[in-house]
Amino acid sequence: MDFNVKKLASDAGVFFTRAVQFTGEKFGQVEKTELDAHFENLLSRADSTKNWTEKIFRQTEVLLQPNPSTRIEEFLYEKLDRTVPSRPNNGELLGHYMQDAAKDFGPGTPYGSTLIKVGDCERRLGGAQREFLQTSAISFLAPLRNFLEGDWKTISKERRLLENRRLDLDSSKARLKKAKLAESKAAAVPDFQETRPRNYVLSASASALWSEEVDKAAHELRVAQTDKRTNMTTTHNHLQKELGRFPNAFAGNPVLPMASGGSSPQGNATLPPDAASAVETDTLKIEEVQAPATGTRKAKVLYDYDAADTSELSLLADELITVYTVPGMDSDWLVGERGNQKGRVPVTYLELLS
């Protein structure tokens, strides 16, 4: 067994130094380096995204499968990488029972013919429910699960790395401050018995050493902070795009025909205001949108954003664009213009200027 005592002692020393720095920050006894304001905002958004995604994921699982025993069984099959046995749902069972009863009563009887029609509708409703559950699991739950089990674990790991870099930086700053204080005290000591030059040289050497450590730690902190900002922004964009595809997953599904003599429930259905607004936004042709005479504003881009389709505009952090709103557009989006380019942009990525 390869047991490196020196490495173990070094790691223990680093851990102890970080623990001392962390404890001092909690009690307000030492200084703490504040991270970039935009990065702090991104961290806050990451925590909020994780918390709400977890709640939405759990509640969606309960909605799609209310039976806790079945949920546990599906979870075990998933972890064992095995296919969940196919079972008819309640609608399909009811439809089969009705059709079997119709055969027993006779298709020519009024009761039997009615059971055949209603049973066929129930069977197709059960099939539609099964398709909805499968599509929801693939298009809605899968991105949420991938975020919680993959992306979020990566973010948490890199946040710990960033926090360690910051603690190392602040610890180095504290040691540099102490070295400079010792240097100034040594310089003020009377030059009796030639003690001052020796102390001065030692303290100056320590000061230079800690100054180099501070520069190194600061560089590592900046690199780590930049990497984590890029990673978290990319993850947020990926999750947003994956969930944005969910409403379109059912766009191509045909409406199930009803039995003759019946009326389609979809025929009398009306879309809620939010859904109607979403449909109107999807049908909005960006190339035909014209900027209003008044109401345009300048906005600073806070984070990079990759367009999900041709109706959106890709963004680069810190650039300035012109934004405005149009009737029927979702309140979370604006129309952005940059030169001859135009497209929808998310409001959360912008800082609106006067």
3D architecture notes:
It is found in: Cytoplasm. This is Endophilin-B2. Belongs to the endophilin family. Keywords: Coiled coil, Cytoplasm, SH3 domain. The chain has 354 residues and is α+β, with helices and mostly antiparallel strands. The chain has two domains: 11-189 and 203-245, Substrate Binding Domain Of Dnak, Chain:A, Domain 2; 296-353, Roll (SH3 type barrels). Helix content is 61%, strand content 7%. It has helices at residues 5-26, 37-64, 68-79, 90-105, 110-188, 195-244, 273-282; strands at 297-301, 320-324, 333-338, 341-346, 350-352. A hairpin with an 8-residue loop joins strand 2 and strand 3 (333-338). It is flat and about 115 Å long. Residues 191-196 and 249-282 have low confidence and may be disordered.
Rg, rounded, reads: 32 Å
Fraction in beta strands: 5-15%
Spans where pLDDT lies below 50 across 5 or more residues: 191-196, 249-282
The class by helix and strand makeup works out as: alpha+beta
Short structural summary:
The protein is an alpha+beta fold.
Note the main attributes of this structure:
single chain; alpha+beta; Substrate Binding Domain Of Dnak, Chain:A, Domain 2; SH3 type barrels; 5 strands; 61% helix; 7% strand; Endophilin-B2; SH3 domain; SH3-like_dom_sf
How are the secondary structure elements laid out?
Elements lengths: L4 H22 L10 H28 L3 H12 L10 H16 L4 H79 L6 H50 L28 H10 L14 E5 L18 E5 L8 E6 L2 E6 L3 E3 L2
Antiparallel strand pairs: 1-2, 1-5, 2-3, 3-4
